[in-house]
Amino acid sequence: MDTVVRDVRVIDGSGTPSYRADVALDGGRIAEIRRETDSGPRPGAARVVDGAGLALSPGFIDMHAHSDLALLRDPAHEAKAAQGVTLEVIGQDGLSYAPVDDRTLAEVRAQITGWNGDGSDIDFSWRTVGEYLDRLDHGFGGQGIAVNAAYLVPQGTVRMLALGWEDRAATPGELARMRQLVAEGLEQGAVGLSSGLTYTPGMYADDAELTELCRVVARYGGYYCPHHRSYGAGALEAYAEMVGLTRQAGCALHLAHATMNFGVNKGRAPELLALLDEALASGADITLDTYPYTPGCTTLVAMLPSWASEGGPEAILARLRDDATAERIRHVMEVEGADGCHGVPIEWDTIEISGVSDPALADHVGRTVAASARERGEAPWTTARRLLLQDRLGPTILQHVGHEENVRAIMRHPVHTGGSDGILQGAKPHPRAYGTFPKYLGTYARELGVLSLEECVAHLTGRPAARLRLPDRGLVREGYRADLVLFDPDTVAAGSTFDAPRTLPTGIAHVLIDGRFVIEDGRRTDVLAGRTVQRTRP
Description:
Residues 47-519 form the Amidohydrolase domain. This is N-acyl-D-glutamate deacylase. The chain is α/β, with parallel strands linked by helices. The protein is 34% helix and 18% strand. It has 2 domains: 60-294 and 402-474, Alpha-Beta Barrel (TIM Barrel); 299-400, no CATH class.
C-alpha cells in the first residue's frame, strides 16, 4: 500500500456512528478498511500515519464556491485546501466565464470584478465550458489545480450571450439558443445550471424561460441551483416559485445559500422548512446549502434596482453619473425597496464595504456606508454612488441582515449541505471564505451541539456527493477515491474572524486528494492534485 492511517476514528460521511480502524490507501483510492474488531493482519504501507486522537472523514465538498479564477490564479489556494475542502462547485449565481464570446467575456468580467477580480492576470484563452474545464485540468503548467472543481452552467451568462442585457422575454429563437448553450455545457461536463435571480441579466428571465432551461438540465441528469428572486420581502414566495418550476420541468433542485434574511424574516425558518418538507413528501428532489454565519456577502452594485442595470456595466455607470437618474435610484433603494436588495429598503448601517479594486478607496474598507458617510458629512447614498463610480462597480460588501435562529434551524434539515459562498477578493472578505467547514465542525457540532459530529460530516460530504451523483466520492468506503481529511475533533476550529478574515483554521492535520497530501501536518504542500469532476450520466 502507499499509505496507511493507523488507529483512527472513521467518520464515514453516511451519518452513522463512527468507528476505529486502520485505513489503507493505494493508487489514489481507499484499498482497505480494517476495523479494530476485525481479525487478521493489519495492513502495511510505505508510509504510516498515526491517527491516534484524529478523525478521518471524506474530503469536504463546498457546494457554493466563487473560486472560478482563484483556482487559476493561486496554486496554493489555502482558503479552501486548509479547511479540508477537496471539491468546490463553481459557476455559481448565474454568472461566470463560460460559455462566452469576446463581448460577453468583457461584460461579465466587469460585472463580477468584486467576486473574482478583473481577471487582468488571467489568460482567457477559453470560450466554451469544455475549454474552461480543460484549462482547469491543465492549470499551472499542466500540473492541475489545488482542489477538485465541478462547474454549473451560469444562466445569466447564457442569457447575456443569447440576447444581451435587455429586460424582456426571450424570442423563440433566443430561447432555442439558450437551450442549446445549456445542453452544450452539460455535454461538455457541467453538473447543472445556476441562476442569480437578483442579478442582471439573469433576473430578467421569467418562469417559463427558466422552466424550459430546467427541462434541458433534467434531460442530462443535472440539477438547477438558483439564487432565487428574494431572500427578504417575499422570500417564501420566491422559494415556492423555484420548487414549482423545477417540479414542472422534472428537474432536481438545489437551493443556493438557503436562508431567511432581513427583519421581515426573523424566526421564519420553520415556514421555509415546512414548505420544503411538503414538497419532499410529494416526491420533489430538493437539497440546499448554507454557510454558518449571519451576514451575507455580495457586490454593492447588486443592490441597485434591476432597471438601473439594464444594458450592462457601462449603462449602469452612465445612469449613476446622471444626477436625475441617480436620484431615482436612491429613492427606490431607500424608500421603496429595490429588487436588487430583495424588496427591502436598504439600511446603510448594515452595508459594510469589504473590498475595493482601487487602492485609493481603501479607507472605506471595514466601515459601513453609513459610517463612511458620517465621517465625510454627507448622505449615505452620496458615498455609495461615489464608490460605485470611482471603483467602476468594484466594491464588495458584507450585508449584516441575518438571524442566528434561522441559520441553526436550516442547518439541521436532512437535505442540508455546506457551502461557503466564499468571495476571496477584497481587503476584508467575509470569514466564511476561510472558515465555513471548520466552523461547522468546531462551533456548531462540538460547542453548540446543533448537529452531532457524524451528522455534521454527512452534511459536508456524503450528502453533497449524492447531489452531484458522484459514485466514488463522499464516503469512506473501500474502492472510493482517497479524498480525505484528518482532523482533531477536540480542537478543529475556524481561525478566520470578521477582523482577521484570512486566518487559517486550526485542528486540520492532513488533507489528501487522490491519496496525495495537499495539507501535511497542517501545512500546504506543493501538490496540485485537483482536477475537474464532470457530470455523471444518469
